Amino acid sequence: MLNLYPVRMLRKYVPFRILSFLWKLILFIGLNSNRVYAIEKIAEEVNLQIEPWWQILPGYQIFLAIFGCLYFIFVIQVLSHFIEEQKHSIKSDVTSDQKS
Amino acid sequence: MKIGIFDLDSFVYLPEITVVITTLYLLLRMVFFSKEEESFQGITTSIYLGLIGLIVSLVISLQFINLGFVSLQRIFSIDELTLFLRLPILFTGLLVVLISADFFQQSRYQNEYYILLFLSLIGTFFVISANDLVSIYIALELCSIPTYILAGLDRNNPKSTEGAVKYFLLGILGSVTMLYGFSFLYGLTGTTNLQEMAKKLFLLEQPLIFLSMSFVIFGLGIKIAAVPFHFRLPDAYEGAPTPVTAYLSVGPKIAGFAIILRIFLTIFSPFKLQWMTIFALLSVASMTVGNLLALMQQNVKRMLAYSSIAHTGYLLVGLAVADRLALSSMLFYLFVYLFANLGVFAIVIANSKEGELIEDFAGFNQRFPFFAVTMVFFLLSLAGVPPLAGFMGKLYLFSAAVRSGYTWLAVVGVLNSVFSLSYYFKIIQQMYSVKTETANLTLDEKSRAPYNSLRGLREVNPTVKKSYFSPFLTTAVVIVLLVIIFIGLYPSPFANLAQEAITFLK
Amino acid sequence: MHPGLIYLFGAVILVFLKVCQRETLDLSHTRKQTLSKVFIILTPLLALFITFLLKPQTVKFSRLFDLPLIFFYVDKMNLFMGYIFVLIGFLIIIYAFKIEDDLFFVFSFLYIGSSLGVLFAGDYLTFFIFWEIMALAPTFLIWLKREEESLKAGYRYLIFHLIGGLLLLAGIIIEFTYRPLGLSLGAKPFSFGDPASFLLITPTTKLSFILILLGVGVNAAFILLHTWLPDAYPKAPFTASVLMSVYTTKTAVYALARLFPGVNFVAYMGALMAIYGVTFALMQNSMRKLLSYHIISQVGYMVAAIGLGSDLGVNAGLAHALHHILYKGLLFMSAGAVIYRLGEERLSNLGQLAKRMPVTTITAVVASLSIAGIPLFNGFISKTIISEAAHHNHNYTVYLLLKLASVGTWLSFLKFTYFGFLRQNKSLNHLSTYSQIREVPWNMQIPMLVVAFLCLLTGIYPKFVISILPYPLEELHFYSGHNLVGAAQIYLVTLLIFFLSREYFAPHELFTLDFDYFYRKIAYFSIWLCRSLIAKVDTAYTLAIEKLIPYARESWGITAEEGRVEKMIKNGGGIIVETSERVNLFDKEVIDGAANRIGSSIVNLSKKLRKIQTGYVQNYAGAIFVGLLVVILILLLIW
User: Fold this and answer.
1) Which of B69, B141, B441, C375 has the fewest C-beta atoms under 10 angstroms from its C-beta?
2) Chain B adjacent subunits, 3+ CB pairs under 8 A
3) Are residues A45 and A67 in the same domain?
4) Please, do chains A and C touch (3+ CB pairs < 8 Å)?
């Protein structure tokens, strides 16, 4: 089977600059233990990490967020319009308590 | 077992001794202190003392059941049956004292009532441990004679006296005939001890045996009110003061069934098939006649009399089947039935200011909503509705009958239980209906107006309490309610107790 | 000792106290109230205490007519949910302490008790019994509001849940009938009283699998079975809303975790629920309806996690359930606080509450941050575990959909807090009530603060929760840079977008519709069907008769029956009416008549029989002797 997922080196250091006390606190809580991903242990041996292709791009979550907001706005627009259209053709007793 | 010169086996009589001491103390208290009690205040202390005695005895009996403390002697032997049957008797005594505390508060015969009640209880105690024909008879008389007086305690009420006389005459008839039967048995075997007689009777084939068996059935049938022998019951129950009726519906039954168990399972055990048939017929007749006649009654106490006859019928199903499972379910049902019955009588006492007819229960819900709800529970338990205790009892009883092949008996029993719902529901319907004022009573209705049992008892102190709310009555009702709900949901411990009781047969 | 039974008995005792209070206790009114209140506090405390004493691997059997029932089975999964159920139950009862309506507490105890019963059930029968009680108790809670809308909503709730219960029952019965022999303990053939025949394990036949899944899915608010949730929850009294948001759905989640872990359909349904809930929530104006749709969404998270995988997924789902109970309860509590003080729950009319009701605002903000999954709060922890489970299972569709849903969640909760609590709404200053707003009473503040503290605590220090999870969790690095950066990206961007477009998200009076429109149409459709079809058949018949009448009159000589035929035609539905009349007659005369005649014959028999009791002792004695003779005779015969 072709390995469709690219592999990349595991980064072992924090990939951003520590900017303020708050971040320090969080990192302190986070780094102050020996909790490691199990898979990280395995990957340590092999020095590999398997993840989907779109997770390579750093900052993919920004696009995810933008896309998500757009999606929701779009869906809500469509649904609201649909409901507005249907409003006058619906019997009142069915929907008297659907006002929100 | 002996420790030094002390025979520790006599400790096995500690419950009886406690009750006897309590009775004696009450007697002495009546004699010495009643002169100072102008306002009958002191009796409350006596009630408490009586209750304490009963509770102590109950605790000791429970301990003995845990320990399995048996002591088999010749004349009075404490075996597993005795250990078990002490509990119903003590609960009966406890509940009857609680529900009669306020009823007799203004009566002149209050002290005597308690003395007689306790004497009858002591008699019942001895009945359940009697191991000899003579001791059975003596203990039975000790149990019955106070009840004859108790039934007629309301002297100025002609109904009460009439009922008491009927109770007395027919009761004596029964006892005497039973004694006559016992005499046959003694003549045949030369001994009165049950175990020795059982050994000897086994070898004999005399026709006298069946004659004596029929006389014994006759006598005991009168005692427990099986159907052709039940006639004294309704009149006696109707006339007696209600707490006395409550005791009569339970106490003599326990005694009677204890004697039946002892005699028929030891002496007459070779003739099992014969008496099983007789008991089956008696049971069917009692159930049917009891339920049929209860339908038409207008007086609550009379209806409850017929209902208790019907319950005797259900109990006799266990004897008709007569294997271990059925007998232990019979004991379990006895235990369960006494609670619901005493509960119903407690509510009838609460309503006794209004009267004794079923119609006098109208508007009961407005007077006592809590008692109305509990009355529904008690009546449903008597009828055998799950998840209450009566259902569990009937379930065990009838399933034991089916297991041994007596399916027809179980079917008759179930039909009768369903049928009994109809007259129990009459009371429930009246309780929840709204009371209307009956301004113009016709003469007929006036003559039907209740002979208020209080009337005779009120002769000294004319002020009667407005309503029968009293803490004692409520305690009794709450205890019964909790017990029947608990047994209805979780009957296993009590059923196990009953099963252990049957092991006295070995 | 079963904590559910403590609650159930508490409910019974409360009822008795209420009934008793009239005459049997000679106390003043306030004392009776105190007694009830003492009981109301005591029951949850006792249950809480007992639950923390429970040890896993406790099993209590009982038998019911030869059927073995495991009605108390404790293992780590049960206990995990049990802890949070009793804890939140206790807090909600404190929250609702000042409610004067006694029936509220009775039904809430029934509700909590029955859901604990479902939790600790070890076999299908017990499960089902408590499940049905759990469907019935909240109906009464909804009806307690005593308004017309609530009545209707309660009926719909009841019907929906009873249908779900029936599906469950059908599945259980089919399952029971077809349990394979391999499940028996020992090699005996299958028998009715087999202990293994009712064990609570994944259904073994396809049909029962589907039926039980649907039955559980009604309570878990699977899409298309979910319409009761946003319909009924806003129409209950506000304390009841808090209570109901916790128990029904989480019990269903527990059932899914126990019975259907790793089912693929469940995973995708969960993702669908997550998206669907958030989408509808963004449209809502009413606070509680928004929160109800969010219940669907978050339960979708849990359901997806459970559907994903084995240990990790179930752990994730249950951990999310615990956290969700905490923050959703808190959200409903703060919404309830706003309703209690303002009487207004539409977001379009709210705002500017931060100064007046600081505690409420702070706790609402904490809860919103928790539900969105901001780091430092507990939602972040459980969402991380769920994402990890999705990763582990290589189910990236679900992963992406859940991430999408968390974007939507954050958006809608920005909307919730901003428009509900934080914004400057000048139009409200004119309201006279606005200047009189005080903070909610102490009994409502304390649970809110406690739960907010717990949200924070389990977020910062998740070890407590992880140590009681059913399956051992491999050490997860929650606050790793990887996770934090990812979270930061999503949330900050969404925050930015929200602030740029917040006028778009402003709530206004809106008319929304969900799938229940279609369900209600079904009833109308069936009536229409009857009318059209049957009416058509009927008219066809009468037309035929009309043609026949002249012919019938002449050739059959029907004269006397003229009126009858005419009447038949005039009525139009003649044949139907006549048939129904005949059937009715049969019912009245034959069936009822039989019952009546049996009854009256018994009464007559009784009347005749009671004459035996003549009242004369001689007669009695005579009858008794006759009885004796009969006994002797019978004994003679059978000796």
Assistant:
1) B441
2) C
3) no
4) yes
